[in-house]
Amino acid sequence: MIVVEPYCRPPGHAGPMLLVHGGAWNIPDVECDAHLAGLQIAVETGKNALQAGNSALQVVAEVVAHMEGDGAFDAGCGAVLTRSGKVELDAGIMDGTARHFGSVAGIQHFRHPIKIALSVLENGGRTFCFLSGAGAEKFADASGFSRVKNENLVCLREQQRYDSLAAQAAYHTSHPFLADEDVPRGTVGCVAIDQHGKLAAATSTGGTPFRPDGRVGDSPMPGAGFYASPDGAASATGWGEAIASVSMCFAAVQQLSSCSAEDAAEAAIRTLGLQIKNEDGQGATGGIILLSATGEGGFAFSTPRMARGGWYAGGDPWVRI
Question: Are 221 and 244 in contact (CB under 8 A)?
Fold first, then answer.
């Protein structure tokens, strides 16, 4: 089943707007309050930044950075662990006006990969847009970001999950995307339109639980885990290999020329499930947030729950799971 939810500015209503997500999976009841609290602050952070006149690009980076530091989400200091018990972080950000992006993958010693991705966008000069592993961390050092020990990014909740998964010899990283397991399978993301009508998108993740070291999913891939153009912006969450295979965010933004954001978001999730299946024939699952240049927003997800929220100028901030 696909859950679809529109969120649009009233007709004739202009001004800034944002949508956020904190991952689409079977979020356990015991973790819902923390997700909602983290999302509430994230939405308020974005609202205040947009009202202060900040650009959409600055806002999505700031909102995602908050969620990376919150600890409730599979990003930053709340990230799941790889097979070797390490945190590896990926992030990507895109300016819809210039269609310029910055991405990093395999970050192990920095708290906010989205800020490093933004620095790649701003300083790469299109000479480079995507850095990974040691090269990404060398760039972060040169850019003035402060290192931390990898163990300082490991939280107790995810260490306990790791210990449980490590005992399952047959565990596969696609399992949580195709069943109702209480295992994080998401990312965090934000899309925004500023007072000048410019759009941006950002996505950050701690990856899939108990994955091989070095695995990179959709989150830092432009067009897959995030995408922005003058027409719209999107951020995805779910089974990364599947999302990348259908270029889900790019496809959703492209569809805005012929349908509403709500319909485009639903079509993206439906296509994901129909076109990508596991060896047992189960369709891939995930979620997406989508925002058009005209202020039409849409959420869609095929998982039991998705943490999400939004705000537009003149409206009230909201969050829900």
Answer: yes
Under DSSP, the state recorded for 183 is S
What H or E segment, with its residue span, contains residue 192?
Answer: strand 188-193
What residues are paired with 192 via a beta bridge? 18, 200
Given this model, what pLDDT does residue 280 score? 82
In this predicted model, what pLDDT tens digit does every residue of 36-73 receive, in sequence order? 999 999 999 999 999 999 999 999 999 999 999 999 99
Quick one: which of 72, 128, 70, 121 has its CA closest to 98? 121
Instruction: List residues bridging with 219 in a β-sheet.
Output: none
Nearest to 165 by CA among 151, 185, 187: 185
Provide the b/e sequence for 281-298 (b: ≥16 CB within 10 Å): eebbbbbbbbbbbbbbbb
Locate tokens 């990404």: which residue? 136
Instruction: Judge whether 94 and 197 are in contact, CB under 8 Å.
Output: no
The string of pLDDT tens digits covering residues 221-236 is 999 999 999 999 999 9
Cα Rg of the chain (Å, integer):
18
DSSP states along 41-110: HHHHHHHHHHHTT--HHHHHHHHHHHHHHHSSSSSGGG----TTS---EEEEEEETTTTEEEEEEEE-S-
The per-residue pLDDT for range 106-164, each reduced to its tens digit, is 999 999 999 999 999 999 988 999 999 999 999 999 999 999 999 999 999 999 989 98
Residues in the chain: 321
User: pLDDT tens digits, residue range 8-25?
Assistant: 999 888 999 999 999 999
Backbone angles phi, psi at 51, to 5 degrees: -65, -25
**Residue of 187, 205, 208, 285 with catalytic role:** 187
Q: Is 187 a catalytic residue?
A: yes
